Amino acid sequence: MGGSVGAEAGSGAVVLGTAGVTAADVVAVARGGARVELAGEAVEALAAARRIVDALAARPEPVYGVSTGFGALATRHIGHELRAQLQRNIVRSHAAGMGPRVEREVVRALMFLRLRTVCSGHTGVRPEVAQSMADLLNAGITPVVHEYGSLGCSGDLAPLAHCALALLGEGEAEGPDGTVRPAAELLAEHGIAPVELHEKEGLALLNGTDGMLGMLILALADLELLYRGADITAALSLEALLGTDKVLAPELHAIRPHPGQAAAAANMLKVLAGSGLTGHHQDDSPRVQDAYSVRCAPQVAGAGRDTIAYARTVAERELAAAIDNPVVLRDGGGRAESNGNFHGAPVAYVLDFLAVAAADLGSIAERRTDRLLDKNRSHGLPPFLADDPGVDSGLMLAQYTQAALVGEMKRLAVPASADSIPSSAMQEDHVSMGWSAARKLRTAVGSLTRILAVELYAATRAIELREGLEPAPAARAVIAAARAAGIQGPGPDRHVSPDLALAEEFVRGGALVAAAESVTGPLA
């Protein structure tokens, strides 16, 4: 695997062999700027596959992508004299994206994953083209890719075409300094020669699920952190509401053996260990049991965890795949076979599934926040956690913002993969919409981060308002870290938005989890 080979290379480099790569490799390159190198076995596999393509190109029989047009135009045989132009043209014509620029980390993930497939030796791309792809990543040159253009079938065509266009020295790209300039200028400055495409190479650079897969891997990294954060904020809300931690007992979750549920309950129990608030101060308003949003927190967060586990399995399978059409097989002397492996359905489904799970996690977190602010349900807390209710409105509007985010997440949970719009004169008559599923999941992840930030903001304030009661050590650590980060506690009304922005970064950057884990140890 790429990660194990990369470990031998040193200097934080990720070395690409013929096998797949790990999700950690993708994140390291996309977000961490890790250097990419080609293993000797990859160079050998590239050369071997190229010899097969060259042999097929010399034959009189048409071979899709080598000596024919593309898509609905595949019926035309292309002579030798036009084949270089054919490959340039598919890149230029398919670079048809529109809309805002896609984030740098997504483009880098897409580029790296395409290179990973190229290095498998199943695409027929020459070693020097693969090296140029690595050089582009290592130079920090990021092609301009646009929001709209992929249907998630025949690969993420337009996004990948914009990346391939930069290899040709055409189009625009962002340099390592963040400035967008002509790609030709950036290549020249870094000593990278524009690529001259040979048979099949233009097609091979476009034909993969790399964009949607890259976004899936990045979302999984974010969601794994957010789900731990959600267990912490749920535990803080339970404390603030004087709830009972008895529902978190391991034996209760063992009789419904969903692994994610058990993990979430165990996390909450660790965060609540040593609390002087849980379950001991209900005499003034006796409760047989807490509301669903508190009592069922492990069930909802656990179901999301299990969804993440399934999505991770799909991502790992995809990371081990070589996706192209036609694909070069070296058995029987070598051949190129058409296939449908570029269809994004497996990835699209889990991207949509994750958006559903994230929306529900956001929804239950908002319900807990609302309960903290309602004097009729908060068990003794002031209305809206205000300093002087009536004169002060407290966190009333913070919950409005949270509710708006939940509403958006519910809309984003509508599956993109259930849609299909035929294209290419009905040759590509069923598509996955996986790119769209990935884009909306990225938005949902951002919204979930903000929703948890609002719950954190409310729960920490509510705990501090429980004067005379001692919160759990983990809660004290979280509150101390939040206040050290500039997130203010109880007091008269002030401009709330800056506090919420700080809380959002506190959640997104991992400070919330780090603060709790400083007491609890690693959370699942």
Automatic annotation (TrEMBL):
Its EC number is 4.3.1.3. The modification 2,3-didehydroalanine (Ser) is found at S154. There is a cross-link at C153-G155 (5-imidazolinone (Ala-Gly)). It is found in: Cytoplasm. Keywords: Cytoplasm, Histidine metabolism, Lyase. Gene3D superfamilies: Fumarase/aspartase (Central domain), Fumarase/aspartase (N-terminal domain). SUPFAM superfamilies: L-aspartase-like. One of its GO terms (molecular function) is histidine ammonia-lyase activity. Pfam families: Lyase_aromatic. Pathway: Amino-acid degradation; L-histidine degradation into L-glutamate; N-formimidoyl-L-glutamate from L-histidine: step 1/3. It catalyses: L-histidine = trans-urocanate + NH4(+). The keyword NAD does not apply. Contains an active site 4-methylidene-imidazol-5-one (MIO), which is formed autocatalytically by cyclization and dehydration of residues Cys-Ser-Gly. Belongs to the PAL/histidase family. This is Histidine ammonia-lyase. The gene is hutH.
